[in-house]
Specification:
Elements: H1 2-9, E1 21-27, H2 29-35, E2 45-48, E3 54-60, H3 63-71, E4 77-81, H4 83-99
Antiparallel strand pairs: 1-3, 1-4, 2-3
Helix pairs in contact: 3-4
Length: about 100
C-alpha cells in the first residue's frame, strides 16, 4: 500500500505519478504572502528571499497543471529552475500575447 501511495502522491496536482522533475519558482513580494501559506505539494520547500520575494521548490511529474498555476501569477512569478517548465510557461505567454495583439 505504501508503494502505491508513494507513486500516486509523487506528482503535482491531478497529474500523479513518480515526480521526475523539480521546479523552483520565485514570486514577487505582492503574491508571496499568499503563496507562502499555500500547500502546492506535500514535499514543497519554501523560503523568503531578502528582497521580500518568496522561493518555492517542489517536485512534479507533468508540468501541465503546474504551468497553469504559475500562469495565474503572470508577471508576478518566474520559473527559475527546470528548463522544460520554464519553456512551457514562456510558450503559453507568447501564445496569449499573439492572441491579444
Amino acid at each position: 500500500m505504501k508503494t502505491v501511495e508513494a507513486e500516486l502522491d509523487g506528482g503535482y496536482g491531478i497529474f500523479s505519478g513518480r515526480a521526475t522533475h523539480r521546479a523552483t519558482l520565485v514570486f514577487d513580494a505582492g503574491p508571496a504572502q499568499w503563496v507562502a501559506r499555500e500547500t502546492w505539494h506535500p514535499e514543497q520547500q519554501g523560503r523568503w528571499l531578502d528582497d521580500g520575494r518568496y522561493e518555492l521548490r517542489l517536485p512534479y511529474a507533468d508540468g501541465t497543471e503546474l504551468a497553469m498555476d504559475v500562469l495565474r501569477y503572470a508577471g508576478q512569478a518566474e520559473v527559475v529552475g527546470d528548463v522544460a517548465l520554464r519553456d512551457t510557461v514562456k510558450a503559453r505567454l507568447s501564445a496569449a500575447l499573439r492572441r491579444h495583439a
